[in-house]
Amino acid sequence: MVMQRPLWVLHLLQRNYETLQVDLDISWLIDPQPMFRSQAYASFDLLFQSEGGHGYNAGFYLARPSAGSLGILKKWTVDLTKQAGSKSFEEQHSLGRSLGHRNKSTPLLFAKLNISQFPNGKIWWQYRQPVDKRDAYVVHCNWNKGNKKGRFMRDNLW
């Protein structure tokens, strides 16, 4: 499954489709599409949910068709294929490597989304940060083990 997602995104980008990759453990609160089309975000090739100090979240990102995003998705799928058999295989580590070792001669504009608007599960449930939860567009139930549906239901996010 992990290998399939970047392959499908690459397939769609090659056909000139803007693609929003969304894991199944995400609850939608506000439609982010108008924000993604706004002047502040319209020029980005890739926009990722943040993993905090752990890099970029591969479970929620927007990819726009460009030479830069196509290059990253190709590099990422190659890296995933190389790493697939290793014990330390992590999709997001592979994404981070691909972004870090990208061809810098190909223009690429990418960024992490605001953590208050696009919080990961650790920020939403575990950190006691002054994050105004009314600003959130989505809630990602990553960084949580087991019974994700129960957690969503308990917090009126289901």
TrEMBL record:
InterPro entries: Nucl-diP-sugar_transferase (IPR005069), UDP-D-xylose:L-fucose_XylT (IPR052636). Residues 1-149 form the Nucleotide-diphospho-sugar transferase domain. It comes from the Eukaryota. One of its GO terms (cellular component) is Golgi apparatus. GO terms for molecular function: glycosyltransferase activity. This is Nucleotide-diphospho-sugar transferase domain-containing protein. The lineage of its organism: Eukaryota, Haptista, Haptophyta, Prymnesiophyceae, Prymnesiales.
